[in-house]
Design brief:
alpha+beta, Bacterial Protein-export protein SecB
């Protein structure tokens, strides 16, 4: 097939593995179902280190990220404070050199997982009775470039435990 591009890795699955949310006990919060504008949302995120192991005779990787979310009202009173985390598993389809593997860990894994985390947060908050949440866009790929994500072999982790 001419002009086609084959990816060197495959996204297997993901799971939300952290959800912790505290909501202010306030009648106004319960009563309000209006959309939450981006200027009332603050977010910070952290990248997780990546674990490498063998799965079906291929290198596999588990990585993820955590996102801290705060929603305030017009007076800047905190209405919601939460932490959401996601983990995903990926396998390589072709052998990778160290630079390709670092790019997978630092850039591709967080960039691929962020839309799933974002959708999970908006769905969770919507199902919890909050109005539509208009989360600001984040350039995860750019932020990931300066991260210090490390790749650790599963055998190493098992030896520590």
């Amino acid at each position: 097939m001419s002009g086609s591009v084959e990816s060197g890795f495959q996204f297997i699955s993901y799971k939300l593995d952290t959800i912790h949310v505290d909501v202010t006990s306030d009648i106004g919060v319960i009563q309000d179902t209006s959309a939450i504008p981006p200027d009332r949302i603050s977010m910070s995120f952290g990248f997780r280190n990546v674990t490498r192991f063998i799965l079906d005779e291929k290198n596999a990787y588990i990585g993820g990220l955590n996102l801290k979310l705060e929603i305030t009202n017009e007076e800047k009173k905190v209405l919601l404070n939460g932490v959401f985390g996601i983990a995903g598993i990926f396998t390589t389809l072709i052998p990778m050199n160290q630079k390709q593997e670092e790019n997978l860990a630092k850039l591709n894994i967080p960039t691929i997982l962020m839309p799933y985390l974002r959708a999970s947060i908006t769905t969770t908050l919507s199902n919890a009775g909050f109005g539509t949440i208009l989360m600001p866009l984040i350039n995860i790929g750019e932020a990931a470039k300066t991260s210090s994500i490390q790749i650790t072999d599963l055998e190493t982790i098992q030896e520590i435990n």
